[in-house]
Amino acid sequence: MRSYTPTVIRRSDPARVEIEWSDGAVSVYTPAELRGLCPCAQCVDEISGRRTNDPASVPSDLRQSDLHMIGNYAISMRFSDGHHTGIYTFPYLRENAPEKRDPAGGSPSSEAGRAAPDSGGRASPGAGRPAQG
Ligand SMILES: [Zn+2]
Question: Which numeric CATH code is attached to 6-95?
Answer without folding.
Answer: 3.30.2020.30
